[in-house]
Amino acid sequence: MSKDSFTEQENYTNGESAEISALSVTRLWEKINKIRGKLRPGQIQMADWETGPLAVSAVPGAGKSTGMAAAAAIAIARQYINAAETGDKRLRQLVVVTFTRSAAANLKEKIRKELKELSLPQTGFEVLTLHGLALKIARLYPELSGLELENSKLITPNQSHRFVRLAVEEWINKHPEMYHRLLAGNQFDGEETEKLRRQSVLRTEILPDLADTVIHEAKSSGILPDKLYEWSDKIDDHYQILRVAAGLYAEYQKIMQLQDFYDYDDMILGALQVLKNDQALQKEKGKLFAVFEDEAQDSSQLQTLLLEQLAMGENSVFNLVRVGDPNQAINSTFTPADPVYFRAFCKGCESDQRLATINQAGRSSRIIIDAANFALQWVNRQWSAKNQTRETPFLEQMIEVVNVNDPQKDANPAVVGKGLELCTPRDIYHTVELISQRVVELFKDDPKACAAVLVRENRQGRWLALQLEAVCRENGIKLYDVGEEERRSHVPQEILSLLQFCYRPHSSDYLKATLNILVKRQLIETQDINTLASVPEDFLYPSPLAKPQSEIIQQAARLCHSLLRAKLELPIYQLIPFFALTLKYEQAELATADKLAERINIELVGNHSIEQMLNSLSTIVTSEKFEPVNPENMELQYTQKGQLTIMTMHKAKGLDWDYVFLPFLHENIIPGKFWLPPQGKFLGDFILSEVARAQIRAVLHQPGEKIPNVKQAADDAKYLKMAEEYRLLYVAMTRPKKLLWMSAARKAPFTWSKPHNLQDADPCPVFTALKREFSENVIS
């Protein structure tokens, strides 16, 4: 690689000169101490960090992002102080890494605010997601990363993606014997109808699910197909699940390489490939003085390795601060995130006396804290009694109330009602009645309060929103169903529809789709769209002899004309932003449209045609889950005053409300009873993808140990899911400030796809234990 490739990319840092006078140093220390005076004990340990590794384990509601922002600003301030004392005027950069874009935006704003308090420039740092950091490094050194991003296309594959489906078909064609072994299952009488059913299930569900799971799990750990083949040879497995997975993975990689595509895991791998080059590594490390990571419990093995490489300072010391809460690790059963790596980091730091714990939290009333602590301890005790060889779901880190002089306003607020209310309704309809009554009472007493109903499944939220809609409307309470907002995923679909119309304006279907969107966006009035779309030429370009159009129709035609003119007059890369403005998108929608445009423009490099743009958009709409961009104030939308928000427990992490309702707490959901999809039972009492993930993690966690067989791996997967479900309940229980309302109805549906089919339902064991321990909080 040429030297020029290393020297032309100087815009990674801000290049500021850190000049400061002796008098200014004194004033700066005064301001630093003022910020420190507002922090809690664990936060102060963060703020006092100067060099080396530091692990910070923070309980829910402890203010870890506030502590991290203060620590980041003070670390930057120390660079100015060091410059005054040593004469080294070069200001290096702090990189702060977090899990999501919205979290990055919020953290960035908090750091800027702290720097402003210190009267320092609001620079010297960068807040990125892990993948954003990896992409930046890979893009700087394309020859080293192996990712020619200007000529490659980014995809976000799932089991429905066409590349995964193609990989499945290629594998089946090349491995008929292994495929027929799967087809035969436990037993098979050769009946043709059953054979066709099994073929359909394997091709469209089981094998795509296995491919998707293993591709993410293996790539995020730096494991290539050859390694999976090697591991497979060490397992006595009738189906050879890891060998099947390795073959699917290999076919997927071939398709990606042939068509110049890359995925998010490739970004991490590419960045690590760059850092294997000593010259590039030293250059990138030279730009930074430290790396801070938030939500560290959600990192994978390679992400951890990437941060450690960048943070390696002199004498092989990591200048790395990792902040998280192992007890809030709730993503490991459906993503490559694995809390074991943050736990190991904490243990290593603890042995070196570099573990900080933030145990005080001011969010919730004492009774809510007591309930959450009890649930944590009860689960661990029960777990240890039944599974003595398995790690408990929780670390024994109890939440504590804050000190009397804590700077947080209204810390550990007074309870509303009993603070903790435990109900056992007759059925789910009685549950709705009780929630309705309580919600109306609460908002009547305090119209400016905010509340949330947290559910385990989106289907529960959808059903509940329909049941609560009338009572909320009658009482002037705004009801916000977050799941409904997400289910729409409308931006890519709307942009595709408008582009299809511009490409073929004489298509009745495309014109109708466009007019429906314009009506939905309230840009034109509701009218007889079927008639307008039946003869597109007469609507768009009526002849002089045609019947004069009404003003309503003319308005619709003018909007359609503007879309067609844009296609003729604007460069292709400007079409998506134009469509977004035409549809009068709001902030979050505009940000999502910008993200979509960036993605499409990358894919169009070398082939700027409307046909290619249509192909790329169609792939996103039909085969991928395109994640919308949340605005920087998204949390405010979820927690607005006077609003009842319905959302999943997963989505609620990091948020809080005055009152939180947790209905439908049943044992078959939390911790969950093992349930095998009936269509896949012909293979046995396990799920192929879960077995493969458990086997891969077993090798990574305990290298050199015997790889678990199918039954052992299936058991591992079951216990991993149960542990995570308990942590998810803990996360939900720690969201409220003043009232936690929990219920488990005596009758509930077995599956929420059929909520009307009620049957006797056992409560979640934690709920039963809470009723025994907090008997005075049981509402009869």
By DSSP, the count of extended strands is 17
Low-confidence parts: 1-15
Rg is 28 Å
The N- to C-terminal Cα distance equals: 74 Å
* Subunit arrangement of the protein: single chain
**How are strands sequenced across the largest beta sheet?**
11-12-10-13-14-9-17
Helix/strand class: alpha/beta
Largest sheet: 7 strands, parallel
Helix count? 33
Average pLDDT value? 89
Which overall shape is indicated by the principal axes computed on the Cα atoms?
globular
Q: What fraction of residues sit in β-strands?
A: 5-15%
Portion of residues within helices: 40-55%
Task: Please provide a written account of the structure.
- With 780 residues, the protein is of the alpha/beta class.
- Helices cover 54% and strands 10% of the residues.
- It has 33 helices and 17 strands.
- The strands form four sheets. A seven-stranded parallel β-sheet has the order 11-12-10-13-14-9-17, sandwiched between helices. A six-stranded parallel β-sheet has the order 3-2-6-7-1-8, sandwiched between helices. The protein has a two-stranded parallel ribbon with strand order 4-5.
- 42% of the residues are buried.
- Mean pLDDT is 89; it is low at 1-15.
